[in-house]
Amino acid sequence: MILLFGFNRLPWTTFFDEYGTGRADDQEGEDGMAKTWKTSKPSDFQSLFGRLLVALDMIVASPVGLINKIEEAEADKEKDVDYLSSIEVLIIDHADVITMQNWSHAKTVVEQLNRIPSKQHGTDIMRIRPWYLDGQARFYRQTIILGSHVNPDINAVFNKHCLNYKGRVKLLCEHKGVLPKVLLQVRQIYDRIDTESLVDADDARLDYFKNKVYPKIKDSGQGGIMIFISSSFDFVRVRNFLKSEDASMSTKDSDISRARAWFFQGKRKIMLYTERAHFYYRYKIRGIQNLIIYSLPERKEFYPEIVNMLEGSNSMNCTVLFSRFDFLWLERIVGTAPAKRMVTSDKRIFTFC
Asked: What are the residue boundaries of the UTP25 NTP hydrolase-like domain, all occurrences included (predicted)?
């Protein structure tokens, strides 16, 4: 049996209702899709959301759909997910996109595969392959993970759950970086946060922001400061810190139209903007005078999109915080060779213009 799961593509009517791309306000083309939507979003956005998946002779499901089935089976003993025990080929499509939703769901589903069934289901035991009865099916499963890039979460599933006895293959590539796609003359200052362990990296980043970055923001009294944060976890921590400081800020928790207007008009000095918000909506934030990238985006194409929002800024400054544990993100943006130098150099500050 083949199991294919990936990004949960929705019917167009549901998609427009859920994510508000403006179909109701725009003129429709012959295909029923709003003309403005087709041309106003970047090409990768159109490619990702602009098609539905059709497949035959296999289980096609989203991670959250399978999680719901697993939870139903745990709550009701009359139900089960024994069909997951016979998966011979697993295809995780758009793994990088699933990380924009909830990767833990995908991880949980993979952990449930190829377990010995809880019921016999009238099966003739003599027809079952021996390695299934011995609980060794996971070593015979072929797993294919597809995505535009990797991150530590995807690597963890690959290392821990891709155990085929024939071995494993991972495709690696040299990244050229996306800095040439920054169309403005922006001074991009990369500030390395030195930390000894991955466990301490998040706390070190927050402490650096509290002690080194925010005091400069507070003392300057400058407005138009946008802080881009890739992780929802980091977003909550930074937001809570700024609230404790009574900072004048807008966040994606606010009504987004009002928040953007207040920021543009100078009624709020700081805007917090997450990668997930940009992934789903691709907002154009106006009024940015100073850009702080608290953590680099996973999707490399987002970097020039965010930096190019400085158009109209008087200062054209962008500060990027990174650590040596951000190498996978860093190499996609500045290039593999420069990234290696930046994480190992005795220098801590690097500038790109």
From this structure: 57-169
DSSP string covering 287-323, please?
Answer: --SEEEESS--SSTTHHHHHHGGGTT-SS-EEEEEE-
Instruction: Identify the weakest region by mean pLDDT among 15-19, 32-36, 194-198, 292-296.
Output: 15-19
Residue 201 CB contacts under 8 Å (≥ 6 apart), including other chains: 193, 195, 323, 325
pLDDT at 146 over 60: yes
Measured CA to CA, the distance from residue 74 to residue 69 in angstroms comes to 9
- Strands laid side by side in the 349-352 sheet: 249-250, 270-274, 225-229, 290-293, 317-322, 187-192, 349-352
pTM of the model: 0.80
Place of tokens 């400081």: 245
Cα distances (Å, whole numbers) of residue 112 to 58, 59, 145, 162, 201: 18, 15, 17, 13, 31
Please choose, from the candidates 164, 129, 125, the residue with its C-alpha nearest in 3D space to the C-alpha of residue 144: 164
CATH number of the structural domain spanning residue 252: 3.40.50.300
Render pLDDT for 26-37 as a digit per residue (tens, 0 to 9): 445 555 555 554
Where in the sequence is the domain holding 292, given as residue range(s)? 179-352
Kindly state the average pLDDT of the residues 224-240. 94
CA distance 257 to 120: 56
Closest CA to 177 of 347, 346, 2, 342: 342
Which position has the token pair 């109209």? 312
Model pLDDT for residues 80-124, shown as the tens digit of each residue: 888 898 899 999 999 999 998 889 999 999 999 999 888 887 778
Domain end: 119, 135, 161, which one?
Answer: 161
Is residue 144 one of the residues assigned to a domain? yes
Structure tokens belonging to residue 220: 């300057």
Tokens of 247: 């900072």
